[in-house]
C-alpha cells in the first residue's frame, strides 16, 4: 500500500507524490550557480547603465509630428493585435476543451492540407510546372498517415491529459498573466543586453587596444595562412561572455516560469478548493530556494547554445572567405578552381550541437518538473527523469508528450493566423489608413503581418504554460494518481480511462505495482 503525505511539507513544496520522497528543511539548492548568475546579470546591467551608447545625430524638431504619428501607429499595431490574439487564444482554448481528440488528429493531417492548398495555388499560377509540388504533397500525406497509424492508440491518453491541463489552467488563470510578464522581462533583457553590447563596442572604439598581428586563412587561398594587423578588435572572452549571458538569462527567466507553473499545478492536484496563494508561493520557491537548480540547468543549455553560435559564425565566415578565394582565382587564372569543402566539419559539429541543445532542453523540461514538485537539486532531478520516469514508462510518456507538443504547435499557427485575420477585419471596420503614399495592399499586408507576429508571440507564451502543465499532469499521475482522485474525481476518472485505453498492459502493470 502507498502512504499518503500531507499536502504541504515543511519546505513549502506541494506534495502531489508518494511518501517515498522525503524533504529536509528549506535550503538553497545549487546556490553557487545562483550567485554566478546574479553576478553576471549585475555586470551586464552595469555595462548597459555606465557604458550606454550616446546618440550620434540629433533629431530634427520639424519632424516631431511625423515621429509622433509613427509612434502612435506602432502602438496601435501592437495593442490591437494583442487584443485580437487574446481573443484568438480564448477561442482556441474553448475548441481544444470540447474537441481534444479531434484536434490531435487534425495536427497530423494539417501539413497535408497545407501542402494541398499550396499545390493548388501553385498549379493555378504555374500550370504543369507545379507537378513536383504534387509529388511532395503525396509524400507529406504518406508520412502523416504513417505517423498517425503508429501513434493512434496513444491519442486517448494525450487527449485526456490535454483536457485536464486546460482545466488546471482555467482554475489558475494567473499563470497566463505570469507568462506574459515573463515574456516582457525576456524582451527587456534583450534590450538591456543589446545596449550593453553596443556600449562595450563603443568603449573599445574610444579606447583602442594596441594593434595585434593575427594569422588567418588567406583570402586568395584559405589553405594558406596570412598575417593581418587588427585594431579595435573585441577580445574573444568578451564575445563569449556576452553570448553566454544572453542565452543564460533568457533560459533562467523561462525556466522560472516553468518551475513556478509546476508548483502551482502540484497544489491544484492535491487540493479540492483553489489555493489563492499557490501561484505566489510557487513563484517564490522558484525564485529563491530552487533558483540555483534552475540556473545550473539553464547554464547547460546556454553553454551549448553559445558553442553552436560560435561554430555557426566561424562556418559562415569561412564559407564567405572560400567564395572570395574562388572569385579571386577565377579572375587571376581564368579558370574555375576546385571548390573547397573545409566547412563540412563545421557543419557536422553545428548539427551535433543543435541536436545536443534540443536534447538538453527536453531533459531540462522534465527535470524542472521534479525541481518544482520536490525542490530537488538539478542533478537529483535529472536522475529521477531517467530512473523514475522514462525507465518505467518509456515510450508511452514520450509519445503522449510529443502528441501534446504537436497539437500546441498547430494551435500556435492557428492563433497567429486568426489574430492576423481579426486585425485585418478590424482595419476594414474602422477604416485604418496611413498618411503615407503606401499601397493599400501593402498596408493590409503590414497589418496582417503585425497580427500574425503578435499572435504567435501571445500563443507561444500561453501555450508554453499549457505544455508545462501537461508534463506536470503526466508526472503527478504516474507518481500519485490517488491525490487527484480525492481532489478532482471526475478528472481522475477521465485520465484513468485515457491511460487504460491507450496502454492497457502498462496500466495493469502500474496498478499491480501500487497495490
Automatic annotation (TrEMBL):
InterPro entries: Choline_transptr-like. GO terms for molecular function: transmembrane transporter activity. It is found in: Cell membrane; Membrane. Coiled coil: none annotated. The chain crosses the membrane at residues 32-51, 71-95, 107-127, 133-151, 172-201, 252-270, 282-304, 362-382, 403-425, 445-466. It holds the Pfam family Choline_transpo. GO terms for cellular component: plasma membrane. Belongs to the CTL (choline transporter-like) family. Choline transporter. This is Choline transporter-like protein. The lineage of its organism: Eukaryota, Sar, Stramenopiles, Ochrophyta, Bacillariophyta.
Amino acid at each position: 500500500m502507498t502512504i499518503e503525505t500531507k499536502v504541504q511539507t515543511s519546505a513549502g513544496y506541494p506534495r502531489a507524490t508518494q511518501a517515498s520522497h522525503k524533504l529536509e528543511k528549506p535550503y538553497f539548492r545549487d546556490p553557487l550557480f545562483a550567485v554566478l548568475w546574479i553576478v553576471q546579470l549585475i555586470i551586464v546591467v552595469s555595462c548597459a547603465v555606465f557604458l550606454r551608447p550616446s546618440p550620434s545625430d540629433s533629431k530634427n524638431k520639424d519632424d516631431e509630428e511625423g515621429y509622433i504619428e509613427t509612434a502612435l501607429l506602432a502602438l496601435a499595431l501592437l495593442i490591437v493585435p494583442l487584443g485580437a490574439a487574446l481573443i484568438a487564444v480564448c477561442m482556441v482554448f474553448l475548441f481544444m476543451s470540447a474537441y481534444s481528440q479531434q484536434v490531435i488528429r487534425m495536427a497530423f493531417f494539417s501539413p497535408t492540407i497545407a501542402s494541398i492548398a499550396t499545390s493548388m495555388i501553385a498549379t493555378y499560377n504555374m500550370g504543369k510546372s507545379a507537378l513536383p509540388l504534387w509529388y511532395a504533397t503525396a509524400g507529406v500525406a504518406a508520412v502523416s498517415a504513417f505517423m498517425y497509424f503508429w501513434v493512434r492508440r496513444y491519442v486517448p491518453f494525450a487527449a485526456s491529459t490535454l483536457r485536464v491541463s486546460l482545466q488546471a489552467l482555467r482554475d489558475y488563470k494567473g499563470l497566463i498573466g505570469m507568462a506574459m510578464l515573463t515574456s516582457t522581462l525576456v524582451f527587456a533583457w534583450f534590450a538591456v543586453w543589446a545596449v550593453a553590447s553596443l556600449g562595450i563596442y563603443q568603449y573599445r572604439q574610444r579606447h583602442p587596444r594596441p594593434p595585434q598581428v593575427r594569422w588567418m586563412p588567406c583570402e586568395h587561398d584559405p589553405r594558406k595562412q596570412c598575417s593581418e594587423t587588427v585594431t579595435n578588435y573585441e577580445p574573444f572572452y568578451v564575445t563569449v561572455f556576452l553570448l553566454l549571458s544572453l542565452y543564460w538569462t533568457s533560459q533562467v527567466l523561462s525556466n522560472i516560469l516553468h518551475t513556478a507553473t509546476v508548483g502551482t499545478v502540484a497544489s491544484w492536484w492535491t487540493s479540492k478548493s483553489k489555493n489563492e496563494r499557490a501561484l505566489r508561493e510557487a513563484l517564490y520557491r522558484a525564485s529563491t530556494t530552487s533558483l540555483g537548480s534552475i540556473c545550473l540547468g539553464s547554464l547547460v543549455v546556454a553553454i551549448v547554445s553559445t558553442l553552436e553560435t560560435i561554430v555557426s559564425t566561424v562556418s559562415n565566415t569561412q564559407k564567405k572567405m572560400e567564395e572570395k578565394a574562388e572569385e579571386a582565382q577565377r579572375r587571376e587564372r581564368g579558370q574555375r578552381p576546385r571548390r573547397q569543402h573545409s566547412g563540412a566539419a563545421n557543419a557536422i559539429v553545428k548539427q551535433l550541437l543543435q541536436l545536443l541543445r534540443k536534447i538538453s532542453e527536453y531533459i531540462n523540461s522534465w527535470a524542472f518538473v521534479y525541481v518544482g514538485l520536490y525542490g530537488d537539486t538539478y542533478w537529483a532531478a535529472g536522475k529521477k527523469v531517467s530512473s523514475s520516469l522514462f525507465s518505467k514508462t518509456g515510450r508511452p510518456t514520450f509519445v503522449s508528450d510529443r502528441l501534446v507538443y504537436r497539437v500546441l504547435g498547430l494551435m500556435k499557427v492557428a492563433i497567429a493566423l486568426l489574430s492576423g485575420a481579426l486585425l485585418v477585419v478590424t482595419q476594414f471596420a474602422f477604416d485604418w489608413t496611413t498618411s503615407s503614399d503606401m499601397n493599400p495592399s501593402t498596408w493590409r499586408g503590414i497589418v496582417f503581418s503585425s497580427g500574425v507576429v503578435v499572435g504567435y508571440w501571445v500563443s507561444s507564451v500561453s501555450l508554453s504554460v499549457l505544455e508545462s502543465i501537461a508534463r506536470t499532469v503526466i508526472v503527478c499521475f504516474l507518481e500519485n494518481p490517488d491525490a487527484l482522485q480525492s481532489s478532482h474525481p471526475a478528472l481522475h476518472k477521465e485520465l484513468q480511462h485515457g491511460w487504460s485505453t491507450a496502454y492497457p498492459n502498462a496500466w495493469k502493470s502500474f496498478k499491480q505495482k501500487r497495490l
